[in-house]
Amino acid sequence: MTKLSLIKTSTLPEQKYGNHDTQKINLLGMSKQELADFFVSLGEKSFRATQLMKWIYQFGVTDFFEMTNISKKLQEKLDEVAHITPPAVKFKQFSEDGTRKWVFEVAGGSLVETVLIPAEDGKQFGRKTLCISSQVGCALDCSFCSTGKQGFERDLNASEIIGQLWVANQSYMEDVAPTARENRVTNVVMMGMGEPLLNYQPVVKSMSLMLDDHAFGLSKRRVTLSTSGIVPKMYELAKDIDVSLAISLHAPNDELRNELVPINKKYPLAELIKAAKSYVHDENPRHKKHVTIEYVMLAGVNDSDEHAHQLARLLEGLPSKINLIPFNPFPHAPYARSSNNRIHTFSNILNNAGYVCTTRQTRGDDIDAACGQLVGQVADRTRRAKQWKESVQKRQATT
Ligand code: SAH
Ligand code: SF4
């Protein structure tokens, strides 16, 4: 993995967005129906909703007075009662390999991070995957995850979730006339901070805007929700929206998974695999061809040949693609990344058992942007963060 130098860094507070009059309604993140209701409440026709969505999401316009197919009178009315405001960018870093990272300051002062990872070929209009956060922190405390060590602070609302995608696209629109603008982000993964299925409504609403042709118009195969396995919500998701599903498995048996992904004690593997099978086989027309199985490679913990064979047996009958994720270390993490040789052997066992198994390339190392390592340091705001810090200090004192 090559280290890359930064070409553009801003660590100064940047309040480009986020200043707004809280008495007004934020239209960013509203569903099509909510927007239609809003226009009707103003005595307008509901079709205005799709007009406005195009301005907001396709042309990146937030100023009602730039919306040329809206009458002056309506522009003034909108300006009086509403605003379109994404979360405030606290700072951003753009890496030489095309990786971009934003830290947002959301209402209440909490920080969340978003990372854009371009395809290896670096083509201007090539694949660009945005890794979006759904919560500030996370309540689930997986043992290898720095977000988990922060504890849970709060859910993000729909404007804060979809706002991350809006700002990422906006970063390619500078100096382009509104009607000549194009969204550049091609793929979204809900793999930033937080467990998306524990913030269900805002996440589903935001993903609907990602898919909607009047908003971002992304294909359903290009929007992926990653979950640690909130089983009842997986069944709900299958009914509510048509997106790809990734499951953070990380262990092939309950004993080990209880340790690495503690939510497994509530929803053990048998239930999780059953829910995954139902998501794929579901008789409703939204069924998917496969789920993605995420498996973090922790040296000496979950990466033996036996673990690979167990995993192959566990996934029998579940159409799946396996994605091995080399562990991203964070300060005082009690794990190390498996060696490349080990990952290769593990992967071969799965390939030989008939699975498509890929290894995730870690990108944006120079800006701490690797997915799953969105927090450079454990934030010191919650009891869990305090306990984590104390346990690390104790460990250091005894070694
Ligand atoms: N909460 C959801 C989505 C966010 S985490 C989930 O757990 O699926 C996104 C992915 O990054 C998950 O697969 C998670 O297990 C993985 N991850 C977390 N910490 C990591 C680390 N230190 N190294 C590698 N992957 C990590
Ligand atoms: Fe939460 Fe996902 Fe991290 Fe687990 S891996 S603590 S579910 S963000």
From TrEMBL:
Q: Which domain of life is it from?
A: Bacteria
Q: What is its EC number?
A: 2.1.1.192
The record's keywords, sorted A to Z, are:
4Fe-4S, Cytoplasm, Disulfide bond, Iron, Iron-sulfur, Metal-binding, Methyltransferase, rRNA processing, S-adenosyl-L-methionine, Transferase, tRNA processing
Give the co-factor note: Binds 1 [4Fe-4S] cluster. The cluster is coordinated with 3 cysteines and an exchangeable S-adenosyl-L-methionine.
Q: What class of enzyme is it?
A: transferase
Tell me any Pfam family this protein matches. RlmN_N
Which residues does the record give as S-adenosyl-L-methionine binding sites? G194, E195, S226, S248, L249, H250, N328
> From the Swiss-Prot or TrEMBL record, what is one GO molecular function term?
methyltransferase activity
Q: Which cofactors does it use?
A: [4Fe-4S] cluster
This enzyme catalyses: adenosine(37) in tRNA + 2 reduced [2Fe-2S]-[ferredoxin] + 2 S-adenosyl-L-methionine = 2-methyladenosine(37) in tRNA + 5'-deoxyadenosine + L-methionine + 2 oxidized [2Fe-2S]-[ferredoxin] + S-adenosyl-L-homocysteine; adenosine(2503) in 23S rRNA + 2 reduced [2Fe-2S]-[ferredoxin] + 2 S-adenosyl-L-methionine = 2-methyladenosine(2503) in 23S rRNA + 5'-deoxyadenosine + L-methionine + 2 oxidized [2Fe-2S]-[ferredoxin] + S-adenosyl-L-homocysteine
The main place the protein resides is: cytoplasm
The protein's location, in the record's own words, is: Cytoplasm
**What does the record give as the active site?**
E113, C371
Occurrences of domain Radical SAM core (ranges) = 124-366
* GO term, biological process aspect, one: methylation
Question: Which annotated residues bind [4Fe-4S] cluster?
Answer: C138, C142, C145
Q: What else is known?
A: Reaction proceeds by a ping-pong mechanism involving intermediate methylation of a conserved cysteine residue.
Summarizing the function annotation, the protein's role is:
Specifically methylates position 2 of adenine 2503 in 23S rRNA and position 2 of adenine 37 in tRNAs. m2A2503 modification seems to play a crucial role in the proofreading step occurring at the peptidyl transferase center and thus would serve to optimize ribosomal fidelity.
Annotated PANTHER family: 23S RRNA METHYLTRANSFERASE (PTHR30544), RADICAL SAM CORE DOMAIN-CONTAINING PROTEIN (PTHR30544:SF5)
Q: Which protein family is named in the record? A: Belongs to the radical SAM superfamily. RlmN family.
Q: What is this protein called?
A: Dual-specificity RNA methyltransferase RlmN
- Which species is listed as the source? Moraxella oculi
Query: What lineage is on file?
Result: Bacteria, Pseudomonadati, Pseudomonadota, Gammaproteobacteria, Moraxellales
**Gene name per UniProt:** rlmN
